[in-house]
Amino acid sequence: MKTISVAHSPDADDIFMYYAIKFGWVTPKDAVFQNIADDIETLNQATLKGEYDICAISFALYPFVKEDYALLKTAVSFGNGYGPKLIKKKGSKLKRNFKVALSGEFTTNALLFKIAYPDARITYMNFLEIEDAVLNGDVDAGVLIHESILTYNEALEVEKEIWDIWQELAGTELPLPLGGMCLRRSLPLHAAIDYEQTLIKAVKVANSNKHLLSKMLIDQGLIRVDAPTLDKYLDLYANDDSIELSELQYDALDKLYELGYKHGFYETLIKSRDFLIPTQYEEFRAQ
Asked: Exposed, middle or buried, 264 (CB in 10 Å: 0-12/13-18/19+)?
């Protein structure tokens, strides 16, 4: 059977949404999924190079890879009243050109941050290193992502929520697009449809068996947080809204791409619905 590379980040929501496949609860037809875990910016860069068949990405990256990858409508993470946090040492004041650590050039939080703080001096580092960089004074501030938004040091405080930046820029209350998945366009269409359906089912099964799967992930040491933090984090980023993109989420993606285009980060303006796998193909085949 064909081996399909599926790359995801090592943070709790990505692992949770994929591991129904890893544990054998859900399997694709006529293929074996081989999973790779790496930090999100490494995956963004790998997608630019076309390294994986299916890959988790920051939504902000997608316009740069749209010709080679289709946007999947499952395993998505959005913020709704929450999201990454711009943090600093308690009591400190940030200058106009403050030095900040971001988790990657192509992350969604980086796009929104650059629009909101055009004069900031940016350095990029692994998201696991950002908190210590702020505490050690290597940078004035940093944007925390993933589980770090729940567990950061008490010597730090939030300067600004990326959610608030998003709401100000969007001008309307839409969920904050953070991460999703994409699939290589060179894969046969019938196979691509099956792979997407497999991933949709995996997220649905994981969500329906949250307590069992969470316990298995903790018992096998596959995640970095304790059980209460995992439950809280999954409630935020791996839930009913992660199974399939909704119309509201499509609108949010379109607003993100509109903002990126308006501020000169994208060469063309795209609409997210135009870049999905055309699943109607299967209906035509059946006729």
From this structure: exposed
Same domain, 135 and 234: no
Give the domain range for residue 96: 85-170
d(CA 162, CA 177): 11
Contact 59, 179 (CB under 8 A): yes
Query: What is the rounded (10 degree) CA torsion for 182, 183, 189, 191?
Result: -120
Whether residue 68 is found in the same domain as residue 152: no
pLDDT at position 237: 79
Instruction: Give residue-wise pLDDT tens across range 144-170.
Output: 998 888 889 999 999 999 999 999 999
Whether the predicted model's global pTM rises above the 0.85 cut: yes
Catalytic residues: 146
Are 74 and 197 members of one domain? Answer: yes
